[in-house]
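We emphasize that the prediction below concerns an isolated chain of 282 residues; any contacts that depend on oligomerization or on bound cofactors are therefore not represented. The input was used exactly as deposited, without trimming of termini.
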Amino acid sequence: MQQVFNVEFEKLGLSFALNSVAFHIGNTPIKFYGIIFSLSCLLGTIYVISRANTFNINKGNLLDTIIVSLCFGMIGARVYYVIFYPGDKFLKNPLSILYVNEGGLAVYGGIITAILMGTIVCRIKQIDILSALDLASLGLLIGQAIGRWGNFFNQEAFGTPTDLPWAMKSEATRGVGVHPCFFYESLWCFVGFIFLHLLSLRFRKYFGRIFFFYLIWYGFGRLCIESLRTDSLVVPGLEWLRVSQLVSVFCIFYGIISILIFKKRALEGPNIRGKRMKKKYS
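Result of the prediction step, given as a token string:
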């Protein structure tokens, strides 16, 4: 079903009709959400492959890892959403779990699953896991920065009412100006990519450093942004506890502790899990 939203940024003097459907193939609607998601995966992959040599990773093996990670990441994103979705919608109709076209993917579920499966493939392909995670972090930030705009076309992932100049209104917000949380997260990820990209060029002193900074950067941003959202998934039985904030706190602490530990190892001497990088990685 085609859906058009009348989106307005009143204080910025912007208003336009926003169609969530890009075009049709026969009777099947192709939504902007799917197109943007696909584009985010493609651009993230292109960047990662283009820098494979810099991270001393074979491009063919890396591509295999990416394909497996993306496929299982999609599954993980759906499973995560289904597990924490409030109510008994999926219990009453288990087949609806397969209706991904109706929406319902969780970023953290996709990231966690993609990392787990990617780690397995790295072991099989004999790719250094921490080096691969460093590179994957940069690709993830590209994907997340672009992918969040799919929420804009679906008019979802917005926040509480606000009077800020960039407040967004539409039928989905019931005509009330709200925080465009999708934009906040997109901008946060874009800035994070620039920061970590530059860090990877000159200050990648040991394997895992970029990945640990990614956990801290994205975790902190998501922790703050999630507090504004009105559609957060919550821990069953603890409606006051948002799942994404809980995961974000874990990511932040894990990243900080790992940086401290691996920095100490790098200073103490050669170690595959915390060694000083060769000159070309310094």
